[in-house]
Automatic annotation (TrEMBL):
Keywords: Repeat. PPR repeats lie at residues 28-62, 63-97, 98-132. This is Pentatricopeptide repeat-containing protein. The keyword Repeat applies. Belongs to the PPR family. P subfamily. It holds the Pfam family PPR_2. InterPro entries: PPR_rpt, TPR-like_helical_dom_sf.
């Protein structure tokens, strides 16, 4: 499956998952995260959220990768509000955002022109002890330049 993702063959990933499931081959959180990523890349973030519910029903504990993938998918489909809600929900449930999670949301906010929220999130990131990297600073500066 990872080779299909690397080749951006997201529909193939879905097909492979269906075949594995119908053959009774169990899947794990890693496999589900790949599937959610593929759904998001196909702009089917709604199905990614449905799969999140399925993951929880199966007794798996989603991780920061699961949430970050859905945040990125939400941002890429211009559903910034959904991404922010998921970020807040994730924190309330005790999951710690990492630099990738913060960077994903900050980038989405900047691309949407909401640099004020992005800057507040950048400050929150720093205060939480999670250090911004060059990519996050670059994304923020790009967003600031675009809004003047």
């Amino acid at each position: 499956m990872t080779d299909a993702v690397r080749l951006k063959q997201y529909s193939t990933v879905l097909s492979m998952f269906r075949h594995l499931s119908s053959a009774g081959i169990p899947s794990d959180l890693f496999t589900h995260n790949i599937l959610i990523n593929s759904l998001c890349k196909l702009n089917r973030v709604d199905l990614g959220f449905s799969l999140l519910c399925g993951i929880i029903k199966r007794g798996y504990e989603p991780d920061v990768v699961t949430f970050t993938t859905l945040i990125k998918g939400s941002c890429s489909t211009n559903k910034i509000g959904v991404a922010i809600e998921l970020f807040v929900d994730m924190s309330k449930k005790g999951y710690s955002a990492n630099a990738v999670t913060y960077g994903t949301l900050i980038d989405g906010l900047c691309k949407a022109g909401d640099t004020g929220t992005a800057l507040r999130l950048l400050k929150q990131m720093d205060e939480s002890g999670c250090r911004p990297n060059l990519e996050i600073y670059s994304s923020t500066m790009d967003g600031l330049c675009k809004v003047g």
